[in-house]
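Go through this fold for my students:
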Amino acid sequence: MTPSTPLSTTACTAPSADDIYATGLRNQWHPVVPSRFVAPGAMRRVTVLGEQWLLFRRSDGALAMLADRCPHRGAPLSLGKHLGDRVACWYHGVEVGTDGTVSSVPGLPGCNLEGRKLVASLPVREVGGAVLAYFGDERHPEPVDLALPDPLTDPDADAFLCYAEWNVPWRYAVENLLDPMHGAFLHHESHTMYDGDTTAKFRIRETGRGYFFEKTDQRGVNFDWVELCRTGADWVDLSIPYPPSAGPGGPFGIVGMVCPVDRERTGVFFWRYRRVQDWQRDTWRFLYRTVIEERHWEVLEQDRVMLEAMPADADQRENLYQHDLGVVRLRRLYRAQAEQQAAAG
């Protein structure tokens, strides 16, 4: 991996705590897009944390991520040409390599731009069919250690990635996952979340990588617990019981991540997994593709409709109660981190 150029090269002023809270936390890894969105020899413009970036994949499959801004006149590199191991700006032909170094200025060979790293580049990794990138600030350009979610590295876990983009602030998408009680109401008609009590008590239980938010009086019946994990990237793990009609493999798990696109849009990543082996794996995959996947999209659509219908100031005009402890804890955590990053900047 190539160390990233500080993000300050793409911005005029350091972001405030409100900016960071609205557009996404720095100094950690974020999912960007599914890997299939960038084919070998292709380029794709993406927005992450409110900034424009270019993903391009070399013909050998290696992936690079650059600020979508030519160092010459600021034209979008994403409008340029893919030259295998570099990109040529459409405006004046300036060529930029995968690490952000200007390799050629065709209009003026020997120009002092050549050989200089003038475009911000980010470390990238691909896992579970998704592209992850590290977004550091000027004080933290080197990527932090990334411990990947267990179900995405466990050979006994078989996962399907589901990706969608919602017109909601990124925090709303995470808060939705830290709110298990909505499963008994919003998703009551689901084939997996119809059972169990509609009343509950919750508790927060600390872990070495984050915290559990879980029901104290019900387990293994509905959406009864969720764990927030902070391991270089933020992700959640949760489990939902499965009826026998869904095939072998025990409980159905979900690993969730979000990509803060900008203040109003979020990319949601859900890996739906089960721990299965041998013939059970084949049965699970067949049932998922032919029957279950469509039902899961219906549940995801219910979340999207609800969150997109909420007003922009929804979190400013609330009356919270005990079931919201997980959300309150999450907000305090993220707000404190945003303030720390703004102060350091």
